[in-house]
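Q: What structure does this chain adopt?
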Amino acid sequence: MAVYTKVSEAELTAFLENYDLGALVSFQGIRDGIENSNYFVTTTAGRFILTLFEKRVKPDELPYFLNLMAHLNRKGIACPLTVVGKDGLNLRNLCGRKACLTTFLNGKSARDITPACCAELGAAMARMHLAGSDYPADRANDLSVDGWAALLDKIGAAADTVEAGLAKEMAADYADIKRDFPSGLPRGVIHADLFPDNVFFENGKLSGVIDFYFACNDALAYELAVCLNAWCFDAGSWRFNPDKARAMMSAYQAVRPLNAAEKAALPVLARGAALRFLLTRTFDWLNRGPDALVTPKDPAEYIAKLRFHRSVPDASVYGV
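A:
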């Protein structure tokens, strides 16, 4: 359960006194998510999400994330909006953590990813990229290619306990990706964690995007590469599904066409995104403790995906 910091009814009631949200009716911890503590909160004024930011999130970076959501919301992007208190603040302290309330979004994550879901995602992603084009703040992606070497070093030979030869394989992939990683591509704000559990659907339509706490400024095409990995492989078999990729790419380009350099870069970007998630999953898998509240995700999925992208000759494989 992704509730690392326990909040009592008395503590939450005192916290809510900072807002014009009526009286507390109920609250419940949210199992989804792995980085922060989240609660459903119902008051006499409606439903909200309470987030307590745990150790991974740097407090001085929180305004970037919270103001980004407000910026995108004003541009018509369906994402949570932080609730401002009576004092005009949207961030305060609770149980020794920085915390905020956000509006509640209707919908659920898609459990069966179809090409239609991928098309909805592609169009929404492109609209989000356009909407963020004039966001004035900047935050580097600390989990892009320059940050992967440190993860490789931390994992070291222990990767071979996940699969024999994995340490050498990941190091070789990193060397190739680092050498070929593109520069000069169109940049802007990306979500950087657009996995299915962060995208809501209602009646077959995308109803909202949540969890912007990996958001950063990076190549826009890198977001597509992340989503190729997260959405365009079939669950269980981890086989690439070209119909899903084609649907996502077509819908994205109908809103924001890719230029020639972005198309050419997609294979190495997708390979890099697969390595990024393989590295973080492997690190978490090897460093899980007996008292962990969240079960780390199996790295095997991204071993398979990385090997697939290694064989891709050009972006036509992805439906571009």
